Amino acid sequence: MLRPFRAVPARYRFPATSGSHTFRQRVLWSSPIGRSQFSTVKDTKRGPRFSGDKSWTRSMLAAAGGSLITGLLIFNLRGQVPIVDAEHEQHRKNEQKKPRYVYASKEDLGKAILEIRKELGEEGISTDDDDLRQHGFSEWSSINIDQLPTAVAFPNSTEQVAKIARICSKYKVPMIPYSGGSSVEGHFSAAFGGISVDFMNMCDIVEFHPEDMDIVVQPSVSWMDMNEKIKESGLFFPIDPGPPVRSSGFLYSCFWSVFSANIHASGTNAVRYGTMKDWVINMTIVLPDGRILKTRQRPRKSSAGYNLNGLFTGAEGTLGFVTEATLKLARIPEETGVAVTSFPTMRDAANAAIQVVREGIPVGAVELLDDVQMDVINRMGDTGREWKAKPTLFFKFSGTKVGVQDNIDGVSHIVHANHGSDLEVEKDTSKQEALWFARKQALWSMLCLRKSGHEVWSTDVAVPLSKVSDLVEVSKKDLDKLGLFGSMLGHIGDGNFHETILYDGKKEYKSVAKCVHDMVHRAIEMEGTCTGEHGIGLGKKEFMAQEVGEESLSVMRAIKQSLDPYWLMNPGKVFDP
Ligand SMILES: Cc1cc2nc3c(=O)[nH]c(=O)nc-3n(C[C@H](O)[C@H](O)[C@H](O)COP(=O)(O)OP(=O)(O)OC[C@H]3O[C@@H](n4cnc5c(N)ncnc54)[C@H](O)[C@@H]3O)c2cc1C
To answer: What is the mean pLDDT of residues 424-438?
Structure first.
């Protein structure tokens, strides 16, 4: 049972990854006990074990050692890439010392699937190979593991989600929420097997309150479809978490579900409108044991109690299922404009962008694309024109007619002062989309150039504004030194930028990992973050302690422990027990 709307247009279909080994065979150093422990089910006694249970800890450590050696041997025999450096090695050793949880036996997992089928019907749960693969592997993720979920459930309502949670809780089956499936750090991979819970059937606008400027939606509502449906009201949802792909008139828009809320997603408009979490009024949550709660009523602001919206928004599915949300809407601006300009260096471009923000010019978006990225757009030839292969800034303007012109004049002045070319401005709305399309095409275009069998590493960091130009410059130099096909692109007005590197996983993993990790460490040292919007997932767990500190991590663990004492919700993500 594959979702028809997820079918990638032929133009953008990726080459097969790696022959018979379809998954990247990277050693998941962040796994608790080596890759081979990521088996779907274990014939062990079910139930959680805590650090106090020494015999369990001993047996797990013994298993860890054995699995690790076996895992490495298997990898070496297959000619795959082993653990890459001392830092990772140390991290993995530390991980092995921590307590772990044991999940459902094979038999109990079977019982859970049967019970869910009884509750949801035949179509409500699938063990079809295609479904398992689609929910455990991603072509555009920076990290994949050799483990799929055992089943995929397709609930239709909050009540059905609660039933799934109660059954999984009874049998200690891991549950992994899944909405658009577009996250890139292994967020929805089934690190411990279990049941992926796909919200594809929950894609309705539940209520629309134009007079209150809000909307109540289910998890799989596409933000673009939603905006299309409500545009007559003069309102829109301004968070723009990613590019649509247009191919032969086909709008590939279902991809970024509105519930990008599950990670602190944002996008090009964040410099003006903030990030996803700023637009959530309330959420309906199903906890791992099946309890249902609503975080708040429906006022645009509330100071009643803890900010549960913030808690669940950034949890990446590790605390509960979000089954409904009320989102704020904004007024569609009277006038808009799009402008483009290029610069001799990345530093010049970054300096100009930051100066625009510092001077308080309310741009709708300011996006930086490097020379490689502009060249890629030319090579794809989708935009109907030839761009200068130079660091380039794309701006969006919005507001009143007079305000937009004022802002364009202000930006133009700053661009010239930072050695930029004349601003190419488009105020005709029908032509703006064509100009902005180049920006929206960026990452897809890059992915389309991936050679058969090669990998993509897509990552993001963010730093305070005063550090952006330095970090962009040094990261660009590192990327050039790496000598691989890699580009930089940034929501630079927020101090947030991305690197995308295409590489041969068998030969080049180590050098790419070093390049990416150096950038991440540098960003954190500059008081920044290892991820401005993509989130932690599996791929960035190792940076959590460096960034937030052990005390903050211990508070996060305590919250997790109290809501999900058996670590059933999306285990293996964000941090470990
Ligand atoms: C080409 C491309 C461009 C991108 N550009 C951007 C960008 O500009 N900005 C940006 O922020 N990101 C970007 N991303 C990353 C990604 O698309 C976004 O982060 C997006 O918000 C993920 O949403 P999703 O619905 O696909 O989540 P999924 O991938 O389905 O899930 C993400 C996480 O949320 C959890 N989750 C999913 N649904 C629920 C639920 N109902 N309840 C609880 N937890 C849930 C999952 O378990 C997982 O941990 C890009 C990705 C690609 C491939």
So the answer is: 83
Could you tell me the CA-to-CA distances from 461 to 76, 236, 310, 521 in Å, in that order? 32, 28, 20, 10
Q: Hey, whose CA ends up nearest to atom 28 of ligand 1? A: 181
Q: Which domains does the chain have, with CATH numbers?
A: 335-525 (3.40.462.10)
Spell out the residues 6+ positions from residue 269 whose beta carbon is closer than 8 angstroms to its own. Answer: 238, 239, 240, 364, 365, 396
Q: What angle do CA 205, 267, 201 make, to 5 degrees?
A: 30
Inter-residue contact 67 to 27 (CB < 8 Å): no
Helix ranges, 389-548 (H):
401-417, 429-448, 465-482, 505-525, 544-548
How many CA atoms does the CB half-sphere of 25 hold within 13 Å? 20
Q: Among 140-149, 321-330, 338-347, 432-441, which stretch is predicted with the lowest mean pLDDT?
A: 432-441
* 361-396 pLDDT, tens digit each: 999 899 999 999 999 988 888 788 899 999 999 999
* Dihedrals phi, psi of 425, to nearest 5 degrees: -110, 140
Question: For residues 339-358, b (16+ Cβ closer than 10 Å) or e, as one string?
Answer: bbbbbebbbbbbbbbbbbbe
- Report which of 407, 321, 403, 316 is spatially closest to residue 361, judged by C-alpha positions: 407
The position carrying tokens 């960003």 is: 523
Ligand 1 proximal residues by C-beta, below 6 Å: 140, 176-184, 187-188, 199, 219, 241-243, 256-257, 259-260, 262-263, 265-267, 316-317, 321-322, 443-444, 533-534, 570, 573
Do residues 266 and 532 lie in contact, with contact meaning Cβ atoms separated by under 8 Å? yes
Mean pLDDT of 507-515: 96
Half-sphere exposure (Cβ direction) of 573: Cα atoms closer than 13 Å: 32
Closest CA to 494 of 353, 336, 351, 345: 353
Is the whole-model pTM more than 0.70?
yes
d(CA 283, CA 26): 36
